[in-house]
Amino acid sequence: MIPIPAHRPTARQLHAGLYLLILLTIAGPDLIAQTSNQVPNAEFRGNTGFAVGNVSGSIPSGWRGFAVGSAVLDLSSTDVAAGALFIGSPPVRAVRLENFDFGAPGDDSGFDHTGEDFSLFGDRSYLGSVYLRSANADNSPQMVNVALPIFDQDGNFTGDQPGSFVATANNNWTRFSGPEFAGTDGFSNLLAFRLIDDGGDNALFIALPQVAGPVLANRLPNPGFEGTDGFVQGTVTGTVPDDWRAFAISGASLDIDTLPLTTNAVFPGSPTGIAVDVTVVLGAGNAGFDHEPTQVALTPAGYRFRPQLYMRSANSDSSEQLVIINTPVFDGNGFTGRSPGAFAATLDNQWRLYIGPTFSELPGTTTNLAVAVSDDVGEDSIQIAFPTMLGVDVILADGFE
Question: What average pLDDT is seen over the chain?
Fold first, then answer.
């Protein structure tokens, strides 16, 4: 059985490892209906993932490369055209994983989304799959261990990996899948890739990783930013989308606007849509953009939620912009002081996917996705598109399925 690293990151460590799954169901033609992909950022968008140990290269948002001990790993990404994986497959990115050194016995290296694990339900079945292609220079086959480790309510590895499998990739894109397995209420799961030292380059391409499970949904109100009937508090000018709020109080002022997005504007294959432009005019006091009046119920209790959105700096000089994303949790007595999905990001002028840590909360609590533009040097302006608070479909959550 392949060991799982003990160093699972905290929310603070995950501030650098963030990322949006726009297509809630990314499936090959033979997966069962009424399922969603539980794997975060299966299209490998963005580059704000993080590294542990001797890892070089670029890591997709929400993912992690690790090489502990004397192991050495390199990660990079490449575009995969529409239809390249299977008939009708979307344009995505593939990750190239190469082990330069597997290290000494007991060392560990690989690629996973630890910290972005997903909830399991006892009455549900799950099935892992992925498209693989050898990246060896001589096109020789490459073996890989695809692990699906199970963690308990406290985040500890249980020792079980019932959906895991070993695959041997050749020089053509091929879909591999493991055994179907049942969930356990309150437990969680993730997908991890570890190359097997079978000689040669030990390099592999990975695309569209998937764990088919319960239907997921975007729990945010009006994630498309439609309408102009939002809420305003304080010194705010501009247009606020329905169900959202712009606020600037205690000496702050803020300008907000919406702008159309054309096809492919945010990422290859992205749909038309609407982006929100948020500019802090005066940074004194408190200013931001959220949906506090229309909060999200964190049900069922203990289920993991994942905040994610596309953002970029809108400063006219293309300078970077610091933003803080919060997920304040409320109960019957008001704000609890907790914001478990919070993260910070420094934006450049390119659309990138940012993902906060997954989190679960107590019964009866609610949250909202809040964006604060930091008052740093120069302009303070950003654009936001396709925000998501990804969770189990509300019909399943409320027990009416």
Answer: 89
Q: Quote the tokens at residue 271.
A: 């749909």
Distance CA 264, CA 168 (A): 34
Residues 196, 132: Cα–Cα separation, whole Å: 14
Q: Sign of dihedral through CA atoms 12, 18, 21, 25?
A: negative
Q: Are 282 and 373 in contact (CB under 8 A)?
A: no
Task: Kindly compute the dihedral angle of the four CA atoms of residues 377, 379, 384, 390, in this order, to the nearest 10 degrees.
Answer: 20
Q: Return all residues near 336 (Cβ < 8 A) that are at least 6 apart.
A: 328, 329, 330, 365
Between CA 115 and CA 65 the distance in angstroms is 12
Torsion of CA 41, 42, 48, 54, to 10 degrees: 140
Q: Could you list the residue range(s) of the whole structural domain that residue 195 is in? A: 13-214
Domain with residue 136: its CATH number is 2.60.120.260
Single pTM value for the model = 0.88
Residue 5 in any domain: the answer is no
Strand-pair partners of 218: 390
Output the six-digit token pair for 126.
């799950």
Q: Does residue 221 have a cis peptide bond before it, meaning omega lies within 30 degrees of 0? A: no
Domain membership flag for residue 329: yes
Phi then psi for residue 292, to 5 deg, are -55, -35
For 343-385, the pLDDT digits (tens) are 999 999 999 999 999 999 999 999 999 999 998 878 999 999 9
Contacts of 375 (CB under 8 A, 6+ apart): 280, 283, 284
Number of helical H runs and strand E runs in the chain: 1, 34
